[in-house]
């Protein structure tokens, strides 16, 4: 008993002194850190507020060098480098962070995400993809998946995009997934069509229809597939079915009908009549330029008199340069004026993205400018102004 009391009497003051020393050391260290780190933060912040990014970077670099453990400063510095377009320096900062063994799981995921952003902004999509993959299973998984999907869409890797959508966790994305999957399958079907793998294209279009029954694209692509196979009659019959169910598709479908298709239907007057009626009924409801052009083309093909009167009728409804130029061409009066009008109307026949204003003569389901899906109206530029 005496022995234990002696230890206690001796141990208590020693413990007290050690505790005091430890607290004093921590406190002094914290004082040093609190003095240097916040000063660097405030100085850097002041420079940033004054839009003096060079000076802010100098201050942060000095602070990071004198205290390499400061995680937040590394993030601030990396973000500044990236914003200034110095992607290699931003990458080095984030890679340096990731190399640290003492980094918390949350900060590690954050550094990984920032590194992926550096590569994305630098346009190094394959390296960005590699940087995003380790984020699976972390708190940043869903935003990493969104970024990965963006990369697959940019690189037209529809196979990977499809696989990713099957396991996406972001609720907001999930709501749009069926539409996106439908487009990915249609894109793959188009690739198959280009390689003349028509059976594969047909199977992909059937899948596209199954994932998004309300989507208008699979029906239109089906018409394209039949035309690619030279099955003109079936293509027109299918187009009539599609446009009956979804009248908004007729301008795009009518854009595919040219003289060769009407020639192919020559011995089927009933089908030609059906096409004529569909075009006419649609035009009466909505005066689409594509429908107008197809209407005149089919009436001329059927030998109907005054087919060109539709152009005059259209100009009466809308001041249309496209209709005027086409009418002039029919009259064959003055080739000089005809050429001038033709040149003036060409830009008016473009399609334009509603999101970014990108214009193209071909219709795009995904805008090459801003990557939005279905952002092109089926109207030509001239019709957007009226
Ligand atoms: Zn766009």
UniProtKB/TrEMBL annotation:
<dbReference type="InterPro" id="IPR041166">
    <property type="entry name" value="Rubredoxin_2"/>
</dbReference>
<feature type="repeat" description="TPR">
    <location>
        <begin position="37"/>
        <end position="70"/>
    </location>
</feature>
<keyword id="KW-0479">Metal-binding</keyword>
<dbReference type="Pfam" id="PF18073">
    <property type="entry name" value="Zn_ribbon_LapB"/>
</dbReference>
<protein>
    <recommendedName>
        <fullName>Lipopolysaccharide assembly protein B</fullName>
    </recommendedName>
</protein>
<feature type="transmembrane region" description="Helical">
    <location>
        <begin position="6"/>
        <end position="25"/>
    </location>
</feature>
<keyword id="KW-0472">Membrane</keyword>
<keyword id="KW-0997">Cell inner membrane</keyword>
<dbReference type="Pfam" id="PF13176">
    <property type="entry name" value="TPR_7"/>
</dbReference>
<comment type="function">
    <text>Modulates cellular lipopolysaccharide (LPS) levels by regulating LpxC, which is involved in lipid A biosynthesis. May act by modulating the proteolytic activity of FtsH towards LpxC. May also coordinate assembly of proteins involved in LPS synthesis at the plasma membrane.</text>
</comment>
<feature type="domain" description="LapB rubredoxin metal binding">
    <location>
        <begin position="351"/>
        <end position="376"/>
    </location>
</feature>
<keyword id="KW-0677">Repeat</keyword>
<keyword id="KW-0408">Iron</keyword>
<dbReference type="GO" id="GO:0046890">
    <property type="term" value="P:regulation of lipid biosynthetic process"/>
</dbReference>
<dbReference type="InterPro" id="IPR019734">
    <property type="entry name" value="TPR_rpt"/>
</dbReference>
<dbReference type="GO" id="GO:0008653">
    <property type="term" value="P:lipopolysaccharide metabolic process"/>
</dbReference>
<keyword id="KW-0802">TPR repeat</keyword>
<keyword id="KW-1133">Transmembrane helix</keyword>
<keyword id="KW-0812">Transmembrane</keyword>
<feature type="binding site">
    <location>
        <position position="370"/>
    </location>
    <ligand>
        <name>Fe cation</name>
    </ligand>
</feature>
<dbReference type="GO" id="GO:0005506">
    <property type="term" value="F:iron ion binding"/>
</dbReference>
<feature type="topological domain" description="Cytoplasmic">
    <location>
        <begin position="24"/>
        <end position="386"/>
    </location>
</feature>
<dbReference type="GO" id="GO:0009898">
    <property type="term" value="C:cytoplasmic side of plasma membrane"/>
</dbReference>
<feature type="binding site">
    <location>
        <position position="353"/>
    </location>
    <ligand>
        <name>Fe cation</name>
    </ligand>
</feature>
<dbReference type="InterPro" id="IPR011990">
    <property type="entry name" value="TPR-like_helical_dom_sf"/>
</dbReference>
<feature type="binding site">
    <location>
        <position position="367"/>
    </location>
    <ligand>
        <name>Fe cation</name>
    </ligand>
</feature>
<feature type="binding site">
    <location>
        <position position="356"/>
    </location>
    <ligand>
        <name>Fe cation</name>
    </ligand>
</feature>
<keyword id="KW-1003">Cell membrane</keyword>
<dbReference type="InterPro" id="IPR030865">
    <property type="entry name" value="LapB"/>
</dbReference>
<comment type="similarity">
    <text>Belongs to the LapB family.</text>
</comment>
